[in-house]
Every structure is written in C-alpha cells, then in structure tokens.
Write a structure and sequence with these properties.
- By secondary structure, the chain is an alpha/beta fold.
- It has three domains: 61 residues, Transferase, Pyrimidine Nucleoside Phosphorylase, Chain A, domain 3, CATH 1.20.970.10; 249 residues, 3-Layer(aba) Sandwich (Pyrimidine Nucleoside Phosphorylase, Chain A, domain 2), CATH 3.40.1030.10; 86 residues, Aldehyde Oxidoreductase, domain 3 (Alpha-Beta Complex), CATH 3.90.1170.
- Strands 1-4-5-12 form a four-stranded mixed β-sheet, with helices on both faces. Strands 6-10-8 form a three-stranded antiparallel β-sheet.
- Strand 4, helix 10 and strand 5 form a beta-alpha-beta unit.
- The longest helix is centred in the middle third of the chain and has 17 residues.
Length: 435
C-alpha cells in the first residue's frame, strides 16, 4: 500500500478498506506518511468523508496505533469530552467532582484547536503544573488521587497526535470523521468503561447548527458504543461563551470562583451537573442521571470537588496551596482595558468564533504549531445574550500583553457583538440528549 493511492481513493469518493486505513494510521504513527500526505488525507476526508464503516475503522486503527491502558480499580473508569467552545472550562470542574463521587478519571485532553481553547493550556496556566506524565505516574495518580488531566503520551494514539496538529494548521478541524476518530482514539486507548460527550452547538462551536451537532453526536456515540464503550452525548448551547471569561488563566480563575463558592457561574455549574450525572449513571455509581446530578451538586456544594482539584494540582507539580491562594498564583496580563460598546441595546447575538480568534491573536492560542501560548491574556467579564448595554459601556475587559494587541482585540470584539432594541429569548443550555 502507499499513501498516495489511499488519498486518491478518498478524493475520488471511494471508501478505503479497513486494512488501508489501518496502514495509513500506522504510517502516521511512524514515518511512512509525510506531513504533506497527512494534510492531503485530512482535506480529502473533510471534503468527501469516510462513511460510517470507514469512520469506525479509522478510529480503531488510530486507537491501535499505540499503547492502550488497562485498569484494576475498585470503581468505574469514567471520562468526559467536549467538542470545544469559548469559555468551556467544564473539564476542570467535572474531573475532581467525579473523583469526589468515587469515580476514577484518567482525562486525556488536548490543546487549543482553531478558535477554541484547550484544557491542557488552561491547566498549565497554573505555575509548575505539568500535564505530561509517563504511564506509571498516571496510573499511580489515578489510584491515589482518582483524577488526572494529562496529555496523550507519545505511546497513546500516536497517529492522532500527529494528525491533530496537522488539522489545526490545514483548515480541516471541522470534519466529523476526523473529529470522531481523534476524540475516541485517545479515549478508547485510555481504557474507559464509560464516556459522556458534550457536543457544542452555536457560533462559538465547530458545529454551528443543531443538525450539524446532532450528526456529530450520533457519529461519536455509535462509534464509541460499537467499540464497546458505554456512551451518551448532550448537545449544549455555544451561541455565547459558557464562562464569562475566555483565556487560559482567566478561565481557571472563574473555575476556582465556582469551585470555592466565591462567585458561582450557574451555566458552568449546570453543565457540570448534567454531564456528571450522565457519567455516574453510565458507571453504575448513580441509579440514573438525575441521581448522578444530585451527587455532583453535593460534591460541588460541600467543597469536596475543590479539595480533589487541589490534590490533583499538587500531584501534577502545581502549588500545594492553590485552592487557598489561587488569586496570587495565576499570571496576570500587563495591559487590562475595557472594550466599549459602539452602540446601545440588548445583546442579541454574539459571534463566538470571532471572540475565540481574538483570544488567539492576543497570544492565548496558536496560529502555528510552534507558537507559545501566553497564559495571562484573554477576555473577562464578557456580556451575555440579553444583557442591556449602554453606549460606551464595556462589552468585556481585554487582557493583553501590549496596547496595540488590545486595540486589535477591541475592534474584533465590537464586531462580534450585535445589539438590538428588544431583549432576545435566553438561550436554552441543554438542547438534546443522544444515547
């Protein structure tokens, strides 16, 4: 077999065989497939698709391209994955909340992709914290702390590690087939018993419409279940940022405010409860999703989730006193400015993708694979849909490294917000459940 023939087959609308996709995944993990061929493969899949059988075959092939984990623990091994959005920092709350409820959570996460932020980048804004760890350390931390948020090692789904980076810089992030294979290859390699998926829908998500989000959710659920992992998905709103912040350290600040009860973000709280309830039900800890949600809420309200978060941070090299002194531990931007509204009215729509790209251009994400992320920059105090804004009132606060970068961000943010004379309906947070 050779890469050119497989790429041409997909380009021409033909379905590659499982054997061909297995060979290609092995070539991505090794050296038989060049970067140019990997990019061409990604573009061909984006434009022509693989079909359900091909998607399952690619997922299995990418899972099998490296090591897979196995566990012998006194409780279920659970995880959650989000397809990404603006201000989506739920993983940082949910992993310790699940651990507080008796689950074991080896959360293999990713970095920023396109206009969305990455869980690893957010967590690494905590000084000293390391997200890369060898398998023996991961297994020890899961046994002792019950949760870890880590990057995929070079041995876990190496085909995905390579293709993931190439998708980010070749305009092929949005492919349902590639998203499905990327997400599930890492999750299945982690040896999960059950998985809950948060599929985002709206202007700040990769899937802009409910139909697109439902197609992705069904692809993920059927593929995961076909591979033997109990899975459900919630389609959730991303017509506006989930948190009131977008940017790595700023989102960690908002998570800590919610975990410690300083200032609770109700949207983050409600999504964490809903996803956690699904996971605990799938894992057999809870009788059903409602019982599971109640258990997650108790973990949040009691401070147990915050306690487990602190243990996880310390175990991964962060400050041992982070939960008590997080405001002093997180980096801050050198330039902080208001973004004034150029008009008055109610916020009717928000272009989340524009906001996300503004954060990337501030340095909070990557435009090229080699870019370094500035953890301190981003947006805070973002106005939400339905908010009444006066002329010159702040749409948000811009946290930047330079005045010129702040100026550029302000212009982009002003274009992202549309105001109207009438108050719009409040967006529904959870749109659909797929099982």
């Amino acid at each position: 077999m050779d890469a050119r023939a497989i790429i041409a087959k997909i380009r021409d609308g033909q379905s590659p065989t499982a054997e061909e996709l297995t060979w290609f995944a092995a070539g991505l993990a090794g050296s038989d497939v060049s970067d140019a061929q990997a990019g061409a493969f990604a573009m061909a899949v984006l434009l022509k698709g693989l079909g359900e059988a091909g998607r399952i075959a690619l997922t299995r092939a990418m899972t099998a391209s490296g090591r897979t984990l196995d566990w012998d623990l006194p409780g279920p091994v659970l995880d959650k994955h989000s397809t990404g959005g603006i201000g989506d920092c739920v993983s940082l709350m949910l992993a310790p909340a699940l651990a507080a409820c008796g689950a074991y959570v080896p959360m293999i996460s990713g970095r920023g992709l396109g206009h969305t932020g990455g869980t690893l980048d957010k967590l690494e804004s905590i000084p000293g914290l390391r997200t890369a760890m060898p398998e023996d350390q991961l297994k020890r931390q899961i046994r002792d702390i019950r949760c870890a948020i880590t990057s995929a090692s070079a041995e876990i789904a190496p085909a995905d590690r390579r293709l993931y980076a190439i998708r980010d810089v070749t305009g092929t992030v949005e492919s349902i087939d590639l998203i499905t294979a990327s997400i599930l290859s890492k999750k299945l390699a982690a040896g999960l018993e059950a998985l809950v998926l948060d599929v985002k829908c709206g202007s700040g998500a990769f899937m802009k419409t409910l139909a697109e989000a439902e197609a992705l959710a069904r692809a993920l659920v059927t593929t995961a279940q076909g591979a033997g992992c109990m899975t459900t998905a919630l389609i959730t709103d991303m017509s506006q940022p989930l948190a009131t912040a977008a940017g790595n350290a700023l989102e960690v600040s908002e998570i800590m405010e919610t975990l410690t009860g300083t200032s609770v973000n109700s949207a983050l709280w409600d999504i964490t409860m809903a996803l956690g309830g699904e996971a605990l039900a799938l894992g057999g800890i809870a009788d059903d999703a409602e019982d599971g949600s109640n258990r997650i809420e108790q973990a949040l309200e009691s401070g147990a989730a915050a306690d487990w978060f602190g243990r996880m941070v310390a175990a991964q090299g962060g400050p041992a006193d982070f939960v008590d002194r997080w405001p002093d531990r997180l980096p801050a931007a050198t330039v902080i400015r208001e973004c004034p509204s150029p008009s008055a009215g109610y916020v009717s729509t928000i272009n989340g993708q524009t906001l996300g790209l503004a954060v990337v251009r501030l340095g909070g994400g990557r435009q090229r694979e080699s870019d370094r992320v500035n953890p301190s920059v981003g947006l805070s105090d973002l106005a939400g849909i339905g908010e009444d804004i006066g002329l010159g009132d702040p749409l948000c606060m811009v946290h930047a490294a330079t005045e010129s970068q702040a100026d550029d961000a302000i212009r982009a943010i002003q274009q992202a917000y549309v105001l109207s004379s009438e108050a719009p309906d409040e967006p529904q947070l959870i749109l659909k459940r797929i099982a």
